[in-house]
Amino acid sequence: MKKLLVLFVISIFTLTGCSGFLYTDKPALEFQDFDYGYPTKTALSNPSIAYIDAGEGSKTILLVHGLASNAGFWRYAIAELSKEYRVIAVDLPGYGKSQKAPYPYTISFYAEQIKRLADELKLDKFVLAGHSMGGQISIIFSLKYPERLEKLVLASPAGVEEFEQGEGDWLRSVMTKTGVKKTTEDAVRKNLAMNFYTWNDKWEWMVEERVRMAKAKDFDAFSYAVVRSVNAMLDEPTFDKIKNISVPTLIVYGKHDGLIPNPYLNPGFTTDIFKWAAEQNPLIQLHEIDKAGHMLQIEKPVEFSKSIIEFVK
Hints:
Elements: H1 2-13, E1 41-43, E2 49-54, E3 60-64, H2 75-81, E4 86-90, H3 107-120, E5 126-131, H4 133-144, E6 149-155, H5 165-174, H6 177-181, H7 185-193, H8 204-213, H9 219-235, E7 249-254, H10 270-280, E8 284-289, H11 296-299, H12 301-312
Parallel strand pairs: 3-4, 3-5, 5-6, 6-7, 7-8
Antiparallel strand pairs: 1-2, 2-4
Helix pairs in contact: 1-7, 2-12, 3-4, 7-8
């Protein structure tokens, strides 16, 4: 798992970049002013949790974002999934429009926040879908509360690769709030592009959001959440728990994921990683999307959503 985390963190926060400064001189973009393409609601307190609630149907799909992102990263998939079902996309505490404070920010903490929101919204049983770090959170949720889930969807999930103690210690030492804060616009654009098979300028909203939010009043608190989240993924590995998942599960992934596996520390093929996971548990089925990278829900939202809809049906 650490091998995945190294490249994932580098891909977002490394300080080398390409060229182009379109947003550096623009004013701060506060987290509450993010445009997700959908209105948000807020529930609960300490922490409060923001979420998108779109569509309607006999089933509900609850979406959990990955490291350093937010509910808005689901916007294209929501447009497709909400044609069939009620779709709820959550901002995890510390991210997006949800409350930011020095919370524990462990994987189990996040799983409990999903349960809190599901209870508040009176969701008896639902489909849980998590991307990247959100996939690891969803695995833990499924192990703690299997009775609450109809099905589980893991989109390019973290937590599948095993990590070594020394590697984890190294990552903890280099992942700092200062490193997060000093990422340049060049680096943001280049490193976001690494999450895709082919970068498209229509996704520049991610670059602008990331660059301008660095000036927001809550950015220090966000940076703390990111750093703690990296530690959380190391502290609660799930590669050895995949065999214990007891609900029908879909792993959907991009064939050309540049982050899984880590090409520097664990060269190989993404397909092999998730085939291994499917071999651990007969309840797991796979769907591979060609010409898609790690952000497959953005790069190939129609095929991504169709795979989930077919699985849920």
